[in-house]
Amino acid sequence: MSVIDDEERLARVIAGHVAELLGVATVETDAGLWSMGLDSLAAMRLVRRLYTDHGLALRADAALHAGTVAALAKLAAQSARPSRAETGAAEASVPTTGQLALWLDGQVRPELALGNLVLFGFRMTGPLDTTRLTEAIRQVVRRHDALRTGITTDEDGMPVAVTVPEERALRLNVTEAGGGGLAERTSALARAVDVADGPLIAVELQCGDGWTDLVAAVAHIAFDGHSEALFAAELNAFLRGERLPPVRSFAHAYGAQASDRTAPAGWIAELAATEPLTWPGEPPGGAGDRYGRLACDPDEAACRALEAAARTAGVTPFVLALHRFGRALRAVTGARSFRVGVPTAGRDDPAAHATIGYFVREAVVPLRDGELDGSPAGLLETWRQAMRWSGTSPHDLARGIRRAGNRDPIFGAQFIWQNTISADWDVPGVRVEPLDVHPVAPQTDLSLELWPSQDGRIRGALEYDRAVVPAQAAAEVRARFLAELTELTELAELAGPAAQAQADDHRPRSVWRRIREHAERNGDHVALRGGGEQVTYRELTEQALRRAEHLSRRMKEPGELVGIALPNGRDAVVTMLAAMAAGGAFLPLDTACPPERLAEITRDARLRILIDESTPPPEDPATRWSAPPTADDLDALACVFYTSGSTGRPRGVMMPHGPLAAYVRNLVADWHITPADRFVQLSALAWANSGEEIFTCLTAGATLYVEPGLRFLPMGAFVSFVAENDITVLDLPTVFWRELTDFLHRGEAALPSGVRLVVIGGDGLDRHSVRKWQAVAPAGVRLVNTYGSTEFGLALQADIDGRPPPEAPPPIGRPLPGIVAYVDGRPLDTLPAGTTGELAIGGATVARGYLNDPELTTERFRRDGSGRRRFHTRDLVRVREDASLEFVGRIDRQAKIRGNRVDLTEIEALLENEPGVTRAVAVPLAGPDGQTRLVAVVTGEDPDPAGLRAALLRRLPAFAVPDRVLPVADLPLLSSGKKDVLTARQIAAERAGFPWT
């Protein structure tokens, strides 16, 4: 096709293409392209059509900067189709959102395309075989397809990822010393990289007398900060002659964890409501080097203060540093609310930890006055939301913000906390040191990058675009940020070392990590007692690591479930910790359950690894074994606890390390648990309460008594055990506490003097039992009533004080820190007294969802307009005058029996499946002693109560089997055709044979 050289005709042609791309009837030639909604992707499609259909060669930035159709036509009139080299692509695929954002930036801002490169270098001193080094570099490129995959456009102008041949993917030069300075060589390498045709990676080896410098430039779409450390580690392995296991392809590894979701309207509105960052002063403008860089290294005292202040605030040093960076930006620019970009690792799939590629996702964080003036803990929830929607396509995000009326860039500043692995070079006779390689162009207007090291120090650099940010403004941002950290130092000095030490347990880390820290600090302290033996913290972690090494050999993939069918005791606790240390998750099983129920759970969980009493103890490993990174990854799965569920089918609740750690950390802080405390484990291993008992105790460095059969002792023997072992904390099911209270109230014994805290939960608390407790409990013993669920742990609690209980039932309490309670969708702190509705729980402790049941997860774990997750409990609650909550009932037909939730409809369905039964109604009845029991009323042809209970015992846990099965002549139906449950309850109360009220 010939080139169109008539501007008017060309303008009409371009207008037709623009109208088609925008989905409108016509476009005037003097209309503004940007104001009509032409964005980066549409611009790429436009210039591709002009190229393929009319032989006109334009860049995407021309389409965006021309302003109007007429102006673009004038530029295009002199253009002709250029020759283009064949890509040599072996295959094409869809780029990831992160790759696409970088590529578009290079197309739209070609003058800053060099900012989208990763540059790094090493000096290797000692006897080094250059030929062997070059082959090692080639081996790394062969192993990782990301280093051979670039981006070009397809026939419709849309970007596609293409794989080029190895010889074109890598440019490798070997030169003698004296070939120019480091900055000059780096710039030359950067300009050689071509993201479409290759090379994707350009490497130069400059050889001197006894040393070799390796300098590399890699397209950012193929490489991130983590990749740099992997590249070095693999070079080290190949130089040592080692063989490395194969890695999964970049596309597969990324596809396993990339989200690519669209952010909800509520979150878009929050971002759009912020202001643009405007910099004081005028940038120099004009041609020249646009890259500016200022060192930003906090001193040693500031680094220590950042760590200590973060612990005090209950956040990570990253969140606190972001908080302080926001304050510095506000002070310099005057903006009261603005957006900051924060790159996140994005390596959610464990396989990605060993894969070179670009996994980074960009989180866009709105920073506002309220969060910047308050505690950094207030920024934590905003950061979590930004992380949740970091997988949103930058194109979709920009389009959503523009629809909300905001035309500014997605963000004007960037904050990078560079947590990457480090490569330990150990090539015989060779010393390796990093070279100080700087970028050759800015990637954003202004970016603060911090590199924390293992010794507690932090290095930093503030980079900026000289054409946008005046040098004085950049210098002031750096000064303000360092001043913010100096203020932390002064606050730390005022607080003193005691306050800092007290805040140590607020630092987020996994349960396994906390227990290891106690082993390192106080390894001889006793962690477990039971069965005539004791286990110190050092022994506990050593035994867990031995079993973990054994489990890791059996696991086919990270995160695999480890079933535990063991009685309460040392082996059960060790195996729980071992599963987490091996990078897996534990699933405890109740061996007292019917075989059918255990088989159902095993099938549902797809359980492949089971540890039971027949499993031999692990042998000592031949070499020292260390836990994988997933053992401390707060987003990785820690455990699965099964619950009977509202449908009657067992449901596995997935609890990651982060929510589990937050849940336990709340209890340790509120209950003031210290290493001097002693706990007892009463709950069966399979119930979530066992995790509450075990991990609350061990993460605080206390001692846990795991005596087998403890929960089956007569009450007198149990009280004696508590007294003899000086137990300080009793975490009891409410039904067990009632029995203890009655025992003490009868005068058969006194509560042992060592007990300081009694925690109850799992069943309703009645005021009659509270009165009895107040009569027998010594002064100073704290009684805490709690409300929780397997799906979110313990979320609410109320102290039951010594005042006479009111006529209303005792409260289930207020939310613990980090927990948000909603009643009918509204936050608790916004509701007036007397409000009644369904309770939902949100916050840091909410589980991930139900194992292998996405539909039920979506139904019960819901998100609001801003993406915040909450679990809908189906419990009805009432807001009291003191802003605590009172339990009212269920919105469905569930009941709690001896602390366990059962579904009445499941019991009825199982009964009606038995021969001779035509209709069944199960009802819970509460007696004057406060205990709740099940009674089933059935009709049919001479049903056998004993036979029906025996049949249920084969299918259900014992607590879900009715205490009485009562045959009746008839059960009426309502006019709707549904069972008349109220009449059935009246019949059951009259016929049960108990003194019900």
Brief rundown of the structure:
This protein is of the alpha/beta class. The chain has 30 helices and 40 strands.
Give a topology summary:
Blueprint: H1 7-22, H2 40-54, H3 60-65, H4 69-77, E1 92-93, H5 97-108, E2 117-125, H6 130-143, E3 149-153, E4 159-163, H7 166-169, E5 170-176, H8 182-192, E6 201-207, E7 211-219, H9 225-239, H10 250-255, H11 265-272, E8 291-295, H12 300-313, H13 317-333, E9 337-344, E10 361-368, H14 369-373, H15 377-388, H16 394-403, E11 413-417, E12 431-434, E13 446-452, E14 458-465, H17 471-502, H18 511-522, E15 526-530, E16 533-536, H19 537-554, E17 561-565, H20 570-581, E18 585-588, H21 595-605, E19 609-612, E20 637-643, E21 651-656, H22 657-670, E22 678-680, H23 688-698, E23 703-705, H24 715-724, E24 729-733, H25 734-745, E25 757-761, H26 767-776, E26 782-789, E27 793-799, E28 814-815, E29 819-823, E30 826-827, E31 836-843, E32 849-850, H27 854-860, E33 861-863, E34 869-879, E35 885-890, E36 894-897, E37 900-903, H28 904-912, E38 917-926, E39 932-940, H29 945-953, E40 964-967, H30 981-991
Parallel strand pairs: 5-6, 9-11, 11-13, 15-23, 17-18, 17-19, 22-23, 24-25, 25-26, 39-40
Antiparallel strand pairs: 1-4, 2-7, 2-12, 3-4, 6-7, 8-14, 9-10, 13-14, 15-16, 20-21, 21-32, 26-27, 27-28, 29-30, 29-31, 31-34, 33-34, 34-35, 36-37, 38-39
Features:
Non-ribosomal Peptide Synthetase Peptidyl Carrier Protein, Chain A, globular, single chain, 997 residues, Chloramphenicol Acetyltransferase, alpha/beta, 23% strand
